[in-house]
Amino acid sequence: MIRFQRVGRTNDPAFRIVVLEKERAAKAGNVVELLGTYNPKSKALTLNEEQVKYWISKGAQPTDSMHNLLVNKGVIEGKKVNVLPKKTPQKNEAKIAEEAAAAAAVVAAKAAAEAAAKEEAAAAAVVEAPTEAEVAAEAEPAPAEETPVVVDVVAETPAAEVPEEAPAA
Predict the structure, then answer these.
(1) For a FRET experiment, which of 8, 102, 153, 167 has its CA 20 to 30 Å from that of 49?
(2) How far lies 112's CA from each of 34, 56, 98, in Å?
């Protein structure tokens, strides 16, 4: 197994990158080969990349933290591995994306329903509201068609009222 072996003082960590048997503890000292060193404070890394690739080809497995370091430095290719404790696992990014998409779909559906309701209400208001011509027609009732009254202009007047012409003298 390729792993870190801690060396250094308290509160000043430094690590050796070593190959050792999987059953052996990192502090036991039964190191098969020393591959390099790593200082996490200064980010200083010395690494024999050829030997790392050789041991991986022989079946040595790097620990998760060592795998992430090798991926960062470009020694091996692949995705990083979650090294957080299992008590507080990271949320799955794909699951978060799905939840966000579902929430967005629900919001969009609600917005579409509200827009449709507004359009329907506007359409109903347009149908119910009379046009200006209808309003004017209701305000002034149309005159009823009446038959014309024929009035005789020449009126006969009674004889008593007609003055007699004076006799010619």
Answers:
(1) 8
(2) 65, 56, 21
Tell me if 56 sits within 8 A of 63, measured CB to CB: no
What are the residue ranges spanned by the domains of the chain?
Answer: 2-73, 91-130
Which pTM does this prediction carry?
0.49
What are the tokens at 71? 């991926």
Tell me the pLDDT tens digit for each residue of 53-105.
Answer: 999 999 999 999 999 999 988 888 888 888 887 765 556 777 777 788 888 88
For 15, the 3-state DSSP assignment is strand
Number of H helices, E strands in the chain: 4, 4
The SS3 assignment for 24 reads coil
Q: Cα angle vertex 65, ends 63, 68, to 5°?
A: 105
The CATH number assigned to the domain with range 2-73 reads 3.30.1320.10
Q: pLDDT tens, 30-57?
A: 889 999 999 999 999 999 999 999 999 9
Q: For the residues of 83-148, what is the DSSP string, one character each?
A: -S-TTSPPPPHHHHHHHHHHHHHHHHHHHHHHHHHHHHHHHHHHHHSPPHHHHHHHHSPPPP--PP
